[in-house]
Amino acid sequence: MSKRGTYDLSQEQLDELVNVFHQLDTDGSGKIDLTELSTALEIVGFKLPQYEVRQLIAQYDTKCPDGKIDIDEFNQMYGKLKQQYDIGSKFKKNIAPRQNLKTHGGMSDASVEGTTHSVKKEEQVAFADWINRALKDDVDCKTLLPIDPESDDLYKKLKNGIILCKLINDSVPDTIDERTINKTNLNIYREHENHQLVLSSAQAIGCNVVNIRPDELEKGKPHLVLGLLWQIIRIGLLNDINLAQHPGLVLLLEEGEEIADLMKLSPEQILIRWVNYHLRKAGCGRQIANFSSDIKDSEVYTYLLHQIAPKENGVTLAPLQNHDLEGRAGEMLDEADKIGCKSFVTPKDVVNGNPKLNLAFVANLFNTHPALDKVEDVDTEQYEETREEKTYRNWMNSMGVNPVVHYLYSDLQDGLVFFQLFDIIKKGSVDWKRVIRNFNKLRINFEKLENCNYCVEIARDKMMFSLVGIGGKDLQDGQQTATLALVWQLMRAYTLAILTELAGNGQHTIKEKDIIEWANQKLKMAGKQSSFRDFKDSSLSDGKVIIDLLDSIVPGKINFSLVKDCQSDEDKMANAKYAISMARKLGARVYALPEDIVEVRPKMLLTIFACIMVRGYKGSEHQTE
Fold first, then answer.
1. What angle in degrees, to the nearest 10, is found between the helix axes of 602-618 and 512-525?
2. pLDDT at 76
3. What Pfam families would the database entry show (predicted)?
């Protein structure tokens, strides 16, 4: 965030700019798009036509041009506009002091310059309540729950890392092997290990944790904790909103659309269609386009609840008789409570149109009561995400790409995510002046093809990737083999680039044979009997080589009493789960899944060993006692 005083803003105004930005950043990506920026500027006093907002994005979107604005760019933009227009009184009116906004001192080196972070009380309340509900039956959380949502209890209860580990598993089951969580004899070192496990695991499920360190979580900094909680909770809420889990979603197709069109929609877009589908069935005459201004009067929610609730629950339309909006919202939430869905929002959150919490409220409604008729003859198996696709998607999202990737074969078709990844892996590889970010409706297909052709050019000429027989048209068409080939090489290049950097100046680029040689040497030096020939070696399937390697680089952390003899496939899977969670706990950012070890999938095994090698090179930087 920019330093206070740069544009002669009061601390209250700086805090509110951050607050406005983060409320509209519903996907937790750290950026907002054209529509969201228009809303944000209007909130702080500028109602500008769309063409002016597009010009502002082009002017200020300079760090990693993607047609979106981050918080620093938003602050700079506001400061410039404030100089051009005298809107002091309007801003002051728009941000009349709010009792639910708290500020906390920054925790980075920038804090000495006066950086503060705004924390919204409603998010604290919503997330604390969700944790209380989600983990109420977990025996390991009994001494930590319930969390008092009104105080700072949330940040204190999360400091040992146990609740965060459990919440990740609640959102994406089996991400963390419970045996690797430090639950007893907790001290600063064991809590640090838990937080390392949290961050590595959160990254593996697609959270962007690039700017968070374990020690920062241990301090319980509210803005960091809430940001991470939202990413974890959001992933859990939206994870199953897809055709594979809910074939009935084909009912949401509009005239002339095919299933392929449904696959291109984000979970948020699907939820909006789902709400509108039930509103049409209810005959209420309303449709929505967002989870903010369109739901403020609770009318949509009241009709939706009445439509999706089982009749025996007795949900009624009675709230519509209350003409006080906050009172109506309260009665509507009482109706939601009848079907166990009174989560995330308070009456004020509904009336204020908080987009983040209302998205969570609707997602929870869908997950609990989708109320979609059973459909026949829909082959959903072909649309189910493979483990490889999921790993790649999570890796890309953890890099902070924008927009968030939901479906590989549609979300990468304009090339913009590829450009961001190229730039992350090899700074300067992208000439952003050649990248088309705002597409002309009449030329959109041609412009996307131009981008994809440029992607292939960078991949071949700057990254030295092998893309035999692959052209830009293949990427634009979402051709699966072509897309996977490029994404895999990007992921591989990212890991090897980190390794090469850590190896020090003057050393050759790290290659696969270097990783194998390093691992075997570490095993030998530690007196281990384990070794392997290459990443196709069947001996890797029981996970023992990986476990021994982890013990070689950070001795004394492996509990060998938990390591199975592998007389069955179940034993191999147990070892693989333990190996991956222990690698993450020790600081290796592993994205692969246990099945990749058991099935000896060479590509994914390469990434596992490469990530462990990165951890090995970092050495004492992550050592715990």
1. 60
2. 80
3. CH (PF00307), EF-hand_7 (PF13499)
CA distance 555 to 479: 45
pLDDT reported for residue 97: 45
Strand 31-32 to strand 116-120: parallel, antiparallel, or no bridges (unpaired)? unpaired
Instruction: State how far the Cα of 494 lies from the Cα of 516, in Å rounded to an integer.
Output: 18
DSSP string for residues in 102-165: EEEE--SGGGGGT-EEEEEHHHHHHHHHHHHHHTTT-GGGTTT-S--TTSTHHHHHTTTSHHHH
Report whether 590 contacts 546 (CB < 8 A): no
Task: Give the model's pLDDT for residue 383.
Answer: 80
Q: Is 238 helix (H, G, I), strand (E, B) or coil?
A: helix
Query: Nearest Cα to 361, choosing from 287, 263, 310, 295?
Result: 295
Task: Spell out the alpha helix ranges (H) of 504-601.
Answer: 512-525, 544-553, 569-585, 594-598
Output the pLDDT for position 238: 96
- E strand or H helix at 325, and its extent? helix 325-337
Q: DSSP assignment, residue 383? A: G
The first and second tokens of residue 559, run together, are 């509990």
Which residues make Cβ contacts (< 8 Å) with residue 395, sequence separation at least 6? 491, 494, 591
Average confidence (pLDDT) per 10 residues, the chain, 625 residues: 45 64 69 74 71 77 72 80 57 47 46 45 96 97 96 95 98 97 95 96 94 87 92 96 92 93 93 98 95 96 98 97 97 98 96 95 98 85 88 95 92 96 95 93 95 97 94 96 97 91 70 95 96 96 97 96 91 98 96 97 96 84 40
Do the beta carbons of residue 429 and residue 464 sit within 8 Å? no
- CA distance linking residue 337 with residue 350, whole number of Å: 15
* Per-residue pLDDT at 529: 93
Residue 462 DSSP label: T
**Locus of tokens 């994406």:** 172
| Percent helix, strand and coil across the chain, each to the nearest 5 | 60, 0, 40
Contact 364, 341 (CB under 8 A): yes
The token pair that represents 108 in the structure block:
């980075």
Q: Tokens for 374?
A: 């059973």
User: What is the value of pTM for the model shown?
Assistant: 0.83
d(CA 482, CA 489): 11
Nearest of 614, 550, 607 to residue 581 by alpha carbon = 550
Rounded CA-CA distance 402/28 in Å is: 10
In this structure, the number of other CB atoms found within 10 A of the CB of residue 454 comes to 20
d(CA 17, CA 78): 9
Strand (E) or helix (H) holding 101: strand 101-105
